[in-house]
From TrEMBL, chain A:
It comes from the Bacteria. GO terms for biological process: transmembrane transport. Belongs to the binding-protein-dependent transport system permease family. This is Glutathione transport system permease protein GsiD. Keywords: Cell membrane, Membrane, Transmembrane, Transmembrane helix, Transport. The chain crosses the membrane at residues 31-53, 104-130, 142-161, 173-194, 225-247, 281-305. It comes from Nereida ignava. Residues 102-302 form the ABC transmembrane type-1 domain. InterPro entries: BP-dependent_transpt_permease, MetI-like, MetI-like_sf, OppC_N.
From TrEMBL, chain B:
Residues 4-256 form the ABC transporter domain. It comes from Nereida ignava. It comes from the Bacteria. This is Stage 0 sporulation protein KE. Belongs to the ABC transporter superfamily. Pfam families: ABC_tran, oligo_HPY. InterPro entries: AAA+_ATPase, ABC_transp_ATP-bind, ABC_transporter-like_ATP-bd, ABC_transporter-like_CS, Oligopep_ABC_C, P-loop_NTPase. Signal peptide: none annotated. GO terms for biological process: peptide transport; transmembrane transport. One of its GO terms (molecular function) is ATP hydrolysis activity. It is found in: Cell inner membrane. The keyword Methyltransferase does not apply. It is a peripheral membrane protein. Keywords: ATP-binding, Nucleotide-binding, Transport.
From TrEMBL, chain C:
Residues 6-256 form the ABC transporter domain. It comes from the Bacteria. The keyword NADP does not apply. SMART domains: AAA. This is Stage 0 sporulation protein KD. It comes from Nereida ignava. InterPro entries: AAA+_ATPase, ABC_Ni/Peptide_Import, ABC_transporter-like_ATP-bd, ABC_transporter-like_CS, Oligopep_ABC_C, P-loop_NTPase. Keywords: ATP-binding, Cell membrane, Membrane, Nucleotide-binding, Transport.
Length: 314, 320, 326
């Protein structure tokens, strides 16, 4: 027929991908494009914070107390310097602290999700593939943990870990403890999703074909099943990232998270709220808006990803 | 010396509800006998078919033959090695490389994330063998192009995928291939291509097939010997000519009469009575007696043994 | 005396995609008369189910009818929408699908499903409907029908469920039944029961049947006439005995020849090389020409061959009776 074009010639892998359904759906979804752009901008800003930030907020030598409480876009009454988003009580540039805070927030979020992912995928895969009492034990632990709110679990782990760390290391270790606490509170959904997908995959005939030739369980799980259960994991990882960032902010806001020497967005919000009623609204507002935009963009991206990767919803 | 010796093979599945449910609902354990006391031999370089309807246990026998399932009782010996009981690792590995399987669903039997080359090479590469040029050679042997080795499974049609499965099955140069409904997911014209390919390979490479199917016409075409299964029991075993000309077990007769015929225009047959019974509570005696037109009191009391009746083995008290 | 219950004229279904417009059903024509069983046969992707779904207005978006007409009992129905289509579907067309579970509501007792359908489309009292429901179940061969009215679908075996579906399809006394692979999921012995049942009921009531299947054996035994579809087009249409024993279209010939039944006694099955073209890469001219051993230049050129009232859409129909295989 005249209206069907002949099959295009094979081209490079990237071009092929760009022609694929996934990229096509991405190009057609304004929400996906906007949220992806926002996330990428924030990630880049966080990575290159030392280059972008006009001031180093953690270098006491560069701070001038006279610059304290500058309003956004207004010259300071004493020094005449102008700060885009104003300064806090110490004279720190709010824009710079946000960039550095973003760094901590994103790092903690991503590392926590990565930790939860590794833990959850491993346990879910093993539970489903091995079955029997191994599965029962893993999944019952998961069920029990699921009955507690994640933030409560994280606070519990954080509290215990803080109790056993020597005082002098507390501030250094805080970030790592935070990552483990959020990660441990978040592995369950990865394990459940991976277990479900594995139960489907392990009965498929390509897995039987691999068992037939005598492949070991480890090789089958890693080389055959794992690549085929990753797309739902990707969706959950994205949505979890938003939740982990908020969990970190919540913990930090409650004062049990990132220390003031390494403030995350949550820490900044906690500090900022002290100034809200004395009129210095910008110290609170800008970090809060950044957090909101980040969490929203990541979440929307995850939502879109779920639809795009699930052919049934199309 | 037969290549496959199946002796008193039995497989029972525990299909009970979880322990707590059983206690609360006061249910007994539910045991499903998928295969019950089946014995047959397959000679080297022949095609032996197992035919039966759903629940006849034909796939379960196939899985036990290749070692994917352990028998509850009885044994499958392949060249005198029992896969489920052999403890010598070297012997076991050698036996495994002699056995391959082709599955029903060409979409599920290829890992969608692997390239065709890796898929075909796996039986050899998993054992550390040399795979240079192997996939390309096998692809051409099954009627595809050697250029297809770099593609992914989703780029192929069902028939082409089944050819890839055949290529993978041939990679370790096996002597026995268990084919579990290899063409039932394919269209008729593609089925003909695949069956012809399988026949050619069997002849040229001296393969032995254990062919599992529900399709009588396919079985009639490809087999040297056919075993008819009903509810996990072997009810008749005969050559295709003997079985289709002169079926001796009432179930075989019913099955053959019910199968649609290409020249059966406007055929009015008395359709068979009843349906396949629940395998958890199979009938006593001969499993077919509730549907059998000639059943007697003996049939409901005593399970018939396999016996030789005019060149076939039949498990029926009344066949002669 | 034959009167067409269903007339399909130049029916075309198209799916717009970003790669172009796909045409899963391309200008097909056929009639089904009262009391007649028309078999629609073809391989997967031939468009046989899509044609059936177009008739009952069950095309999934974005597929839509873009040309042709569908007439049911003298009324044009391809332009009906929403409520009108739904009423027509229930009253005049009954449906039997491959998987009986999808046609029955798992949460309703089958007696209720039957009576609801009857109350919707027939002018009778609830009491009477229930009596007729029991009678309908009895007619399709369900033992102890009156007691089984209160059973749920999952309490039936596969074959019994398909019987219930047939009872449901027939209870509003439709003039046309569309049976899409009604026995594909069933075992051979049960398949024979269902086919016999469908045949008997439709003959007794004079219901027209569109029987869609890939199984040539079922068609040969059941249908009066058969339409062979290939790549969305009709390849051949005719009396079932003629088409099966003396196919005119090379595709029909190959299809018949490649069933193991027809190659009885042959060492190798006859085979058609290649496979059906994808909708995205439809060849010019006759869609079968790349696989056809008789293809000439005219077959590769537009316009493609049409049925035009004849039996086969082919420039070079096979004249001699196909060689019988002994």
């Amino acid at each position: 027929m005249a209206d069907t074009t002949p099959a295009p010639k094979p081209r490079g892998r990237l071009a092929h991908w760009w022609d694929g359904d996934f990229a096509y759906q991405f190009r057609r979804s304004p929400v996906a494009i906007i949220s992806f752009t926002v996330v990428m901008l924030m990630v880049l800003a966080a990575i290159f914070a030392p280059l972008i930030a006009p001031y180093d907020p953690f270098d006491p030598a560069s701070l001038n107390l006279m610059n304290g409480f500058s309003s956004p876009m207004e010259p300071n009454a004493f020094t005449g310097e102008t700060f885009w988003l104003g300064t806090d009580d110490q004279g720190r540039d709010v824009f710079s602290t946000i960039l550095y805070g973003l760094r901590i927030s994103l790092f903690v979020g991503a590392a926590a999700v990565g930790f939860a992912m590794v833990l959850g995928i491993t346990l879910g895969l093993v539970a489903a593939y091995v079955g029997g009492w191994v599965e029962t034990i893993i999944m019952r632990i998961a069920d029990v943990q699921l009955t507690f709110p994640a933030i409560l679990v994280a606070m519990l782990i954080f509290g215990v870990a803080k109790g056993i760390t020597p005082v002098e290391y507390r501030d250094q270790m805080a970030i790592w403890v935070l990552i483990v606490a959020i990660g441990l509170s978040d592995w369950v959904q990865f394990a459940r999703v991976v277990r479900g997908a594995t139960l489907v995959e392990k009965n498929k005939e390509y897995v039987q074909a691999a068992r037939l030739i005598g492949r070991g369980s480890g090789a089958i799980m890693l080389r055959h099943i794992l690549p085929n259960v990753l797309s739902p994991v990707l969706v959950i990882a994205t949505i979890s990232l938003a939740l982990a960032i908020i969990a970190e902010a919540t913990l930090s806001f409650l004062g049990v998270g990132a220390p003031p020497t390494q403030p995350s967005l949550g820490t900044l919000i906690r500090i900022g709220q002290g100034f809200l009623f004395s009129g210095e609204w910008w110290i609170l507002l800008f970090p809060a808006c950044t957090l909101l935009a980040l969490a929203l963009a990541v979440n929307l991206l995850g939502d879109w990803l779920r639809d795009a990767l699930n052919p049934k919803l199309r | 010396m037969a290549m496959i010796q199946v002796k008193n093979l039995t497989r029972i599945f525990d299909v009970s509800k979880p322990w707590l449910n059983r206690v609360i609902e006061r249910l007994p354990k539910a045991m499903l006998t998928a295969v019950s006391d089946v014995s047959f031999d397959v000679e080297e370089r022949t095609v032996y078919s197992l035919v039966g309807e759903s629940g006849s246990g034909k796939s379960t026998i196939g899985k036990m033959a290749v070692g994917l399932l352990k028998p509850t009782d009885g044994s499958v010996l392949i060249n005198d090695i029992d896969l489920s009981r052999e403890t010598d690792g070297g012997k076991l590995d050698k036996a495994r490389s002699d056995i391959q399987m082709i599955f029903q669903d060409p979409y599920a039997s290829l890992n969608p994330r692997w390239r065709v080359r890796e898929i075909i090479n796996e039986p050899v590469s998993a054992r550390g063998g040399n795979v240079v040029g192997l996939a390309e050679k096998l692809l051409e042997q099954v009627g595809l192009s050697s250029l297809d080795a770099d593609k992914f499974p989703h780029e192929f049609s069902g028939g082409q995928r089944q050819r890839i499965c055949i290529a993978r099955a041939l990679a370790s140069e096996p002597k026995l291939i268990v084919c579990d409904e290899p063409t039932s997911a394919l269209d008729v014209s593609v089925q003909a291509q695949v069956l012809n390919l399988m026949s050619d390979l069997q002849e040229n490479l001296g393969l032995t097939y254990l062919f599992i199917s529900h399709d009588l016409t396919v079985v009639q075409h490809i087999s040297d010997k056919i075993g008819v299964l009903y509810l996990g029991r072997l009810v008749e075993e005969a050559t295709p000519d003997e079985l289709f000309e002169n079926p001796k077990h009432p179930y075989s007769q019913m099955l053959l009469a019910a199968a649609p015929k290409m020249d059966g225009f406007g055929r009015e047959i008395d359709p068979p009575q009843g349906e396949i019974p629940d395998p958890i509570n199979p009938p006593t005696g001969c499993a077919f007696h509730p549907r059998c037109p000639i059943a007697t009191a003996k049939c409901s009391a005593e399970r018939p043994e396999m016996r030789v009746v005019r060149g076939a083995r039949v498990a029926c008290h009344l066949a002669e | 005396m034959s009167e067409a219950v269903l007339s399909i004229r130049n029916l075309t279904v198209e799916i717009p995609t970003r790669g172009g417009i796909l045409r899963p059903v391309d200008q097909i024509n056929y009639d089904i008369n009262r009391g007649e069983i028309l078999g629609i046969v073809g391989e997967s992707g031939a468009g046989k189910s899509m044609a059936g779904n177009a008739v009952i207005g069950l095309l999934n978006r974005p597929a839509k009818i873009t040309g042709g007409e569908i007439w049911l009992n003298g009324t044009r129905i391809d332009q009906l929408e929403g409520e009108d289509m739904r009423r027509l579907r229930g009253k005049h067309i009954g449906m039997v699908f491959q998987d009986p579970l999808t046609s029955l509501n798992p949460l309703l007792r089958i007696g209720d499903q039957l009576t609801e359908t009857m109350l919707e489309h027939l002018d009778i009292s609830r009491d009477k409907a229930r009596k007729r429901a029991a009678a309908a179940l009895d007619e399709v061969g369900i033992p102890a029908a009156a007691q089984r009215l209160d059973s749920y679908p999952h309490e039936f075996s596969g074959g019994m469920r398909q019987r219930v579906v047939i009872a449901l399809a027939l209870c509003a006394e439709p003039s046309l039944i569309i049976a899409d692979e009604p026995t594909t999921a069933l075992d051979v012995s049960v398949q024979a029961q269902i086919i016999a049942l469908l045949k008997r009921l439709c003959r007794d009531r004079g219901t027209a049947v569109m029987l869609i299947t890939h199984d040539m054996g079922v068609i040969a035994e059941t249908a009066d006439r058969v339409a062979v579809m290939y790549a969305g087009r009709l390849a051949e249409l005719g009396n079932v005995r003629d088409v099966v024993t003396h196919p005119e279209h090379p595709y029909t010939d190959g299809l018949m020849g490649s069933t193991p039944l027809a190659s009885k006694g042959l060492k190798r099955l006859r085979q058609i090389s290649g496979s059906m073209p994808r909708l995205t890469a439809m060849p010019e001219g006759c869609a079968f020409h790349p696989r056809c051993e008789f293809a000439q230049d005219i077959c590769r050129a537009e316009p493609r061959p049409k049925l035009n009232g004849g039996r086969s859409a082919c420039h070079f129909p096979i004249q001699q009776p196909a060689e019988e295989t002994a």
